[in-house]
């Protein structure tokens, strides 16, 4: 929002004071994250300021370490699979719940988004006992399913928000022209809700890629993910290698946020075009 040309002096002062205040709050929130980045280029062996010098030795250390690379490999296996399943289940659930009206619908919605509300430790303990009964502990399958459960709520919420502006008369028109429900979904519904599906998928991916509590309960040392490796490193031996990996994760998170913003703008343009 820009300053209107007819604004009074008081409004102009408030305009800039408000923005400076918001900028200071933003800086306060991201400062702890930004502090990590220079530490990843330290030539020393400890996380200290001022830096003794600049070096890429810690990036070399993580890319030549079997432990770090094994953890990264596990995360890159688990997170995409969990994201794909979360996008499928979450999209189907959102479309079904958006169109249907039945008793107990609110309860089902509450159950679907409960992993976002219930403390993660409680979710992890519940999954641990349930997966122990069905033989899914210490396996990639169990870890993928656990992260899928955590990612589904994000997809349900984003897809449901996208469907709020969807005209279901298009579905009826497609059905009246002889298209079966599957073809109607893939040719009419899905292309218009793709921004919501992808946005929810990005949230699900970030949740899985960053999740440590559930993974500690479900995964074995063979399925150790990147967050577990970082957690173990902080607990046992804090080195700038953790800062180097954290910097890489910050970069990945930034790219995800930029992608979500681009998808949001695309969705607004599509809605605007539909409105015209």
UniProtKB/TrEMBL annotation:
<feature type="transmembrane region" description="Helical">
    <location>
        <begin position="107"/>
        <end position="131"/>
    </location>
</feature>
<feature type="transmembrane region" description="Helical">
    <location>
        <begin position="241"/>
        <end position="263"/>
    </location>
</feature>
<keyword id="KW-1133">Transmembrane helix</keyword>
<keyword id="KW-0813">Transport</keyword>
<feature type="transmembrane region" description="Helical">
    <location>
        <begin position="184"/>
        <end position="206"/>
    </location>
</feature>
<feature type="transmembrane region" description="Helical">
    <location>
        <begin position="13"/>
        <end position="37"/>
    </location>
</feature>
<keyword id="KW-1003">Cell membrane</keyword>
<feature type="domain" description="ABC transmembrane type-1">
    <location>
        <begin position="72"/>
        <end position="260"/>
    </location>
</feature>
<comment type="similarity">
    <text>Belongs to the binding-protein-dependent transport system permease family.</text>
</comment>
<feature type="transmembrane region" description="Helical">
    <location>
        <begin position="143"/>
        <end position="163"/>
    </location>
</feature>
<dbReference type="InterPro" id="IPR000515">
    <property type="entry name" value="MetI-like"/>
</dbReference>
<protein>
    <submittedName>
        <fullName>ABC transporter permease</fullName>
    </submittedName>
</protein>
<keyword id="KW-0997">Cell inner membrane</keyword>
<dbReference type="Pfam" id="PF00528">
    <property type="entry name" value="BPD_transp_1"/>
</dbReference>
<dbReference type="InterPro" id="IPR035906">
    <property type="entry name" value="MetI-like_sf"/>
</dbReference>
<keyword id="KW-0812">Transmembrane</keyword>
<keyword id="KW-0472">Membrane</keyword>
<feature type="transmembrane region" description="Helical">
    <location>
        <begin position="77"/>
        <end position="95"/>
    </location>
</feature>
